[in-house]
Amino acid sequence: MYILGIETSCDETSVSVVKDGRKILSNIVSSSKKFHAKYGGVIPEIASRFHLETIVQVTEEALRGARIGLDDIDLIAVTREPGLLSSLLVGVSFARALSFSRDIPLINVDHIKAHLWAIYLEHDVKLPAIGLVVSGGHTSLVYMKAKNNFIVLGSTLDDAVGETFDKVAMILGLDYPGGPIIDRLAKKGNPMSFKFNCAELPDSLDFSFSGIKTAVLYFVRKQSLVPGHGLLGRQAQSTVETNRGPSTVDRRLISDIAASFQNSVVDILVKKTLLACAMKKIKRVIVGGGVAANSFLRQNLTREANTRGIEVYFPSVNLCLDNAAMIAGLGFQLYQMKTQFTER
Ligand code: KG4
Ligand code: ZN
Questions:
Q1: Cβ atoms of residues 285 and 132 within 8 Å
Q2: Distance of CA 295 to the CA centre of its chain
Q3: Does ligand 1 have an atom closer than 6 angstroms to the CB of 293?
Q4: Is the Cβ–Cβ distance between 283 and 309 less than 8 Å?
Q5: Residue 301 to residues 90, 114, 199, 262, Cα–Cα distance (Å)
Q6: What does the pLDDT average to over 103-107?
Q7: What is the chain's alpha carbon radius of gyration, rounded to the nearest angstrom?
Q8: pTM of the model
Q9: Looking at ligand 1, which residue's alpha carbon is closest to its atom 16?
Q10: Using 50, 70 and 90 to split pLDDT, how confident is the model at 78?
Q11: For residue 158, what is the enclosing H or E element?
Q12: Cα angle at 214 between 35 and 208, to 5 degrees?
């Protein structure tokens, strides 16, 4: 069975062909990232126009890559929610038009559940498990009780973790999306340099990241190492990325801040995930979403969990980020089970 996955929830237009819910034949991702960079975040109008302009081409490329035609497609799976409304609308309308005109069944897929489902494109992980969703717009711990039964145990009360990475990157004068840049710079910094705390919210599986973002902002405001090239200026980007610029001190300081911030965020993600495992007496964790690509999170969560006899599963980096293969994968599963998700 050939499934055409369509994903347009944010700034990536992605179309994928997956065979039997598992074998990825193509997974094309075209991003409008560079058009948002100067604003430091996604501008919905720019994202939706980009989807409109590219979706046909991306679909053709996905079919070509899979060496099949539209007539070979047995099922269309499309991201229905959550996401930017104007972006979702492009993917959903396109999928509906294809489905109607070619008489192909259509299934709606939840983007967040699909992030957790991404692991099944590579591994057959047994359930129950604790799911950790860490994306640009969402952060939650989920009790994955069965393949169609996911129960949210806790979520962020304010900013999502990816959003926090992006905002802190902006404070440091780095490009958008800031997560991968912070990940890279943190490798050169000392995570013990500064103490930026994440709210603990003891005994709760909820998160809060707005405090640490503000702590970094106030700290950075106090620094004015190079007049006109302070940490709040865009100049910091070229200083760090090109190894040129006015000050090595600035460069080192930015890397130390990045490392200290990342250390604290990863620490709270690890602690709460292990707490969820303990509360539910579960020895298996599945991670999904863009921040699951973070090297420090991958390393620390795996190490801390393994010492407690808990297995941790991260998808490959390209399947952590927004992509249509995970939508096709979950779409196939729902179609096979002829069921909707239950959340209790
Ligand atoms: O799941 P995703 O592709 O899109 C949403 O559904 O939101 O996640 C995008 C987020 C962005 O905030 C980006 O900065 C973050 O994932 N991200 C990372 C890394 N790679 C992407 N954050 C930390 N470290 C990374 N290596
Ligand atoms: Zn996502």
A1: yes
A2: 13
A3: yes
A4: yes
A5: 37, 21, 19, 13
A6: 96
A7: 21
A8: 0.92
A9: 290
A10: very high
A11: none
A12: 90
Listing from the earlier edge strand, what are the strands of the sheet with 2-7?
A: 23-31, 12-19, 2-7, 75-81, 106-110
Residue having the nearest C-alpha atom to atom 21 of ligand 1: 290
In whole angstroms, give the CA distance from residue 328 to residue 106: 11
Number of neighbours of residue 22 by Cβ within 10 angstroms: 16
CA gap 287, 152 in Å, rounded: 14
- Determine the pLDDT at residue 22: 94
List pLDDT tens digits, range 225-282.
Answer: 444 444 555 444 444 444 444 366 688 999 999 999 999 999 999 999 999 999 999 9
Show the tokens assigned to 278: 């303990």
State the maximum Cα–Cα separation within the chain, in Å, rounded to a whole number: 64
Residue whose CB lies within 8 A of the most ligand 1 atoms, among 81, 109, 135, for a mutation test: 135
Name residue 199's amino acid. Answer: A
- What mean pLDDT comes out for the span 150-160? 97
Give the span between the Cα atoms of 173 and 251, in whole angstroms: 11
Task: Answer yes or no: is the C-beta of 162 below 6 A from any ligand 1 atom.
Answer: yes
Q: How far is the CA of 256 from the centre of ligand 2 (A)?
A: 28
State the distance between the two ends of the chain, measured CA to CA, in whole angstroms: 31
Cβ contact 185:236 at 8 Å: no
Q: What is the pLDDT of residue 340?
A: 64
